Amino acid sequence: MPHNKFAILAVTLLAAGLAGCQSDRFSPMATRAPDPLPSAPSGTVTSNQLPPPSSPTANPSQFPEAPQQETQVAALDPNAAANAPDVSTGAVAGVWSVNVAGQSCRVATPQTKFGSGYRAGPLRCPAPIDGVKSWNVEGKQLAFYDANGSVLARLYSSGAGRFDGQTTSGQPISLSR
Length: 177
Hints:
Structural class: alpha+beta
Strand order of the largest sheet: 3-4-6-7-8-9-10-1-2-5
Radius of gyration: 36 Å
Number of helices: 4
Largest sheet: 10 strands, antiparallel
């Protein structure tokens, strides 16, 4: 008799378990259709010519002129270069904020030997500074070079943590920490 009671209990539990699996929530996802998406807005698209942009000269207050920094202008003066302090490689090593003709970026100047100077890494800089591959100190000047060893910019120290000069194409450039 004990086998019959065990068999009846097993069949009862199996039947109860199967009865509980009749819910939709246990059915596979592939058999249920997803909820419909809301419709996208509809309409017509038109095309018109945009008016020409207004000229900054038409409304000068819209684009005020940036103030010139005296140290930057003075560093471009040949007499200021003669009075500039000597520069050491240790004073140049590090990461600099760069301003090239009004555009900002960063340049890393580690003391890792590279060619006849040290490796340099421009970080999202505009041309021509985006092509800087190395730097070196030449007396009172800090010079940046491209991959061919051509000078891209020359700068002079214009104070603690600051260099000013110009690119070979004549754009003003300044470095600051």
